[in-house]
Structures are given as C-alpha cells and as structure tokens.
Amino acid sequence: MPNCRQCGSRLSKLDKDICPVCGLKHPFEDAVSQDTVELTQTIGVIKDDVPKAKSRKVAVRLALFANLLGLDFYYLHFYLAFYLNLAFLIILGIILPTILTIFFGLWYLFIIFLGLPILVHLGYAIYLKQAIDLKDGRGEFLR
C-alpha cells in the first residue's frame, strides 16, 4: 500500500482522489507507482550492528579461572550479578576477614570467605556446561 506524500499515512487503492487523513487532493502524484511500495518502508532496514552470540566455552573457562572477579557474569552481560560479586568479594572477602583477624586472630576466615565464591562459581561453571538452552543477559542463545 502506498503512502500519502504529505502526511505519510498508508492509503488504499480506493483513496486515489483524496487522502482520508489530511485531505490532500491526489496524494499519489509524484509517487513511483500506485501499486508499488518501497520495500524498506514495509520490512525495515537490516542493521549491521547485531551482537554476536557468546561462546559457552569461554563462559565456562571464565567461571573456572576468573571466578573471584566475576568476569563470567560480565562476559554474559549479567551486570547486576557482576557488581554483586565484586561487592561480595570486597566486603566478605577482604574487609570482614581483615577486621576479624586484627581483633580476634581468626586468620582462617580468609579461606572460608574466599572459598565460598569459588564454590559458587564452580557450580555455575558446571551449570553452564550441562544446561541445554542458555541465554545471555541480552536474550541471545549461547553458542
């Protein structure tokens, strides 16, 4: 269906004489043809900036080897989980054990507090490896 040359509304073949929206006489004049429509107006332009699918192997490797930093969450565009992981690392992995070590001499809490995120990321790596249909934070399936 062609468009009106003044208001741009879609017109049927019966609206050759006057546009029902804006009242323009002969809205099809100076158009290419009454029967043709520009294809890009109907379908839309395909953009080249389509994000590429993330690799499952890279996500598993990041979960295994860069687990304390949470780079696997960042790679998969789960930014909230990434920032929560960094906050967990700073508060429960550095600040709290340092205070407990200074005041109470409980140096082994470093191992406990830093071991918990490692276990979480190891479980997440196993989940990434075993799950069938996984999507990243943008809704794209992993390769």
Overview of this structure, please?
The protein is mainly α and 143 residues long. The protein folds into 2 domains: 1-47, no CATH class; 56-130, no CATH class. 48% of the residues lie in helices and 0% in strands. The chain contains 5 helices and no strands. Helix 4 (79-104) runs antiparallel to helix 5 (109-130). The chain is elongated and about 90 Å long. The relative contact order is 0.12. The mean pLDDT is 77.
Please report the distance between the alpha carbons of the first and last residues: 40 Å
Task: Please give the share of residues in helix.
Answer: 40-55%
The H-and-E topology, N to C, reads as: HHHHH
The tally of strands reads 0
Main beta-sheet annotation = none
Number of domains: 2
**Strand coverage percent:** under 5%
Class computed from helices, strands and strand pairing = mainly alpha
Unreliable residue runs = none
Radius of gyration: 29 Å
Q: What's the overall geometry?
A: elongated
For the residues shown, what is the average pLDDT?
77
